[in-house]
Amino acid sequence: MPATPKTMDAIVALCRRRGFIWQSSEIYGGINGFWDYGPLGAELKKNLKDAWWHDIVRCPGKGPDGHFIDMVGVDCTIIMHPKVWEASGHVAGFNDPMVDDKETKDRFRADHLWGLIITDAPGDAAFDLKMTVASMLRNGYTVVHYSFVAGSLGEVTDYVKTNPKELREFGKVDGDIVPHPFGVAVPYPKGKCGLIFPISVDEQKIHYLELPSPFTGKRGTLTEPRQFNLMFESHAGPIKDEANKVYLRPETAQGIFTQFWNVVDTSRVKVPFGIAQIGKAFRNEVTPRNFTFRSREFEQMEIEFFIRPEKANEWYKFWRDSRFAWWQSVGLAGENLQLREHDRDELAHYAKEGAGTSDIEYRFPFTAPGYGELEGVAHRTDFDLRQHANTCGKGDKLKYFDQELQVKLQNEGASKDEINAKSRYFPHVIEPSAGADRGTLALLCEAFTPDETRPSGVYMKFQPRIAPIKAGIFPLVNKDGMPEIAEKLYLELRQSWCVQFDEKQTIGKRYARMDEAGTPYCFTVDGETAGTQTVTVRHRDTQQQERVGLDKVGAFLKEKMSM
Ligand code: GAP
Fold first, then answer.
1. pLDDT at 96
2. Is residue 359 lining ligand 1, measured as CB closer than 6 Å?
């Protein structure tokens, strides 16, 4: 079988065929932005979340202060008091600006509008501009042929500089695309050059009515941008009126912030400490796309780490680097993972200007050569705790009392006023916020390994700790006592791991099924087993086999799972 090229279509097909991910409500034609995990996908995603919970909540390492990190977990509701979302800023600020085409009823995000300037270029560089535009469209951008300027690249640059529109760098690009301070200069066939640039909505002087519709090319059919809130609404109780309006949480973070005071009162945590949560979040995304990457229902794995304000930088760097290393540790170790500090104009409404905010990004097949966000690490300051304290009416009474700091200041001979002022404060927050679905998707993309020696031209190379099935247990044939020995081994191993017993079809077909499921080891009971008390173990990646004692299989797996 020729190797199956690693394309998004091939990954989606394998996910469907093997039961990793399916469209929600598929028998009714599916529902846009919602996805179900099949048996393999459910195990894979659970393994990712379990690894996170284990490494973050149960067994965190040491922080930059040399002490073991204090972390506790919570599990909060999806629907919370509506005031939570007023305090957090989501009612007022969690909006996307939308532009509609009045004729076609199509809609696009105004901040995903890109301009394209085509001009005469020096040289005859050949680059397929259409490919670039197609890839941008796939990624949710709307490209409008905005302006055509005659002149050299330098003249275009001057044109752009003197243009009132704010332009910023497109991002990391290579190959024939030339990074440019204002956009991306694209050598274009026939001696022309294109400059693609994002059009800022905030400071825009754009009149959408004058722009050609990206759907039809006609002018005068677009509306001006209108704000569209991304929170799903519902009603609590039988009466559907404003008073009963509630929201499905768009982030798990606010459950943590609103329970901060209960955690402090009931656990023995002291600043610096963290509260972690895994749970569903919902966003009525305007353009859900790229498989599970942008869904309307998804899961987050969030940490809110509470610190003294002056320690923000140190802890921000710590979390940024340790979260990057964690993603490497679960199998995203190659060049497809990158860390990117945010541009100033990308900051969320709660993030502090000048403070760190970065994204851990993965190069998905549909973002390549660009990257898509897996996790954001942000310094949220004391914004949320302060907002909730003020909105619920208790204000400064809810400040955290730092007894250790009080003692330290006393020992340093600080005045009573200074001690009082400094030892009560709203802690600052460093927030590493990861997506469980995007993480699972990245693991699937990374694991997909084209290989002409496999029957389907591909196998899934998951790290053993993350693999949905840890081992296949097979009797070579269904006679001579082999099924009984294999079943006994299976019953033993399944107490500790997700393993699968399979006695159907040829051994080659069983290996092939396990290769597509990404199962790292297969143990086969064969004609020698009864006599030597050994089984063969087949390694997924090398397809090599060796013999191992029946009584050593558990220890073998345990060792491999901890690697
Ligand atoms: N509490 C901060 C917060 O929610 P965010 O960057 O909006 O920050 C955090 O989301 C993570 O949640 C993202 O890095 C991404 O992995 C995941 N995420 C956000 N929106 C998503 C969507 N529509 N579909 C799938 N995952 C999403």
1. 79
2. no
As a whole number, the mean pLDDT across the chain is: 84
Task: List domains and CATH numbers for the chain.
Answer: 8-78+249-382+431-445 (3.30.930.10), 99-227 (no CATH), 391-426 (no CATH), 457-561 (3.40.50.800)
| Ligand 1 center from residue 365 Cα (angstroms) | 19
User: Which residues on adjacent β-strands are paired with residue 144?
Assistant: 115
Choose which residue among 37, 300, 346 to substitute to test ligand 1 binding: the one with the highest number of ligand atoms within 8 A of its C-beta: 300
φ, ψ at 353 (rounded to 5°): -65, 135
Angle at CA 412, nearest 5°, toward 410 and 413? 65
pLDDT in tens, 253-288: 999 999 999 999 999 899 999 999 999 999 998 878
Summarised one tens digit per residue, pLDDT across range 83-110 is 999 999 999 888 877 888 888 877 777 7
Q: Is the CB of 140 under 6 A from ligand 1?
A: no
Atom of ligand 1 nearest to the CA of 294: 24
| CA-288 nearest atom, ligand 1 | 23
Distance between CA 355 and CA 522 in Å, rounded? 49
Q: In percent, how much of the chain has pLDDT > 90? A: 68
Q: Is 126 helix (H, G, I), strand (E, B) or coil?
A: coil
- The protein residue with its alpha carbon nearest to ligand 1, atom 18, reads 435
Calpha distance 500→472 (Å, rounded): 5
The CB of 526 under 6 Å from ligand 1? The reply is no
- Ligand 1 in contact with 287 (CB < 6 A)? no
CB within 8 Å of 326: residues ≥ 6 apart: 52, 55
Q: Whose CA is nearest to atom 4 of ligand 1?
A: 251
**Ligand 1 neighbour 375 (Cβ under 6 A):** yes
Please state, in angstroms and rounded to a whole number, the distance separating the CA atoms of residues 34 and 24.
5
